[in-house]
Amino acid sequence: MERLRSIEPLAESNCYVLGEKGRCVVIDPNSPVVEGMMTQRGWQPDYFILTHEHCDHMAGLEKLRARWPRTPTVCTTLCSVGIQSPRLNMTSMMEVYLTFRGKQGVHYPPFVCREAEVTFSKPCTLFWQGHTLRCVPLPGHTPGSMGIFLDEITFFSGDYLLPGEDVILRLPGGSQRSYELETLPFLRTLPIGLEICPGHGAPYIRIREENTYGLEPAARS
Q1: Which of 181, 189, 209, 214 has the smallest set of CB atoms within 10 Å of its CB?
Q2: What are the Metallo-beta-lactamase domain coordinates in residue numbering (predicted)?
């Protein structure tokens, strides 16, 4: 399997594209440039998957849907609700957020996405090209957040387990209670040696049990 990572320049979010045998899965289509990466390699998408509803993780989704209209978008039920709301997807406040993060004078007009074709509220598994993608709802950062295990050796964590950063729980829909009761206990069970592919920052290997990082760079990015 080939894995690509595309970094969106404003919020510096990650999109991961997994490719095998001319097919691919797109996790967090953060920018329209992802289409060119796929076209260059001749890859046809089987799934567009969202780790959560924030715009910096799905700003390229509708362009991909227009190009490949039969490819389903997969996310939690609450994520599907959130991508249809400028408040919950953060586009209504993205200019303020980017200014706070040091990006001055950025124009970021609000937008929404259509509802997802495949949604779930409990853990589910997708089977793709001989691989498994196990999706686990993890509320807290947003109501619709989830993590994705690839073959139980790689974990796409969305906006959890970001290198050197605390989890943000104060944005619209965020819940400290949900995070502490549901998500934090789950994250603490992740095994040592698991590769973490975060929504921001470079992939790394989990080498300590705490829900802080003790980072060791992964072999690929």
Answers
A1: 189
A2: 12-200
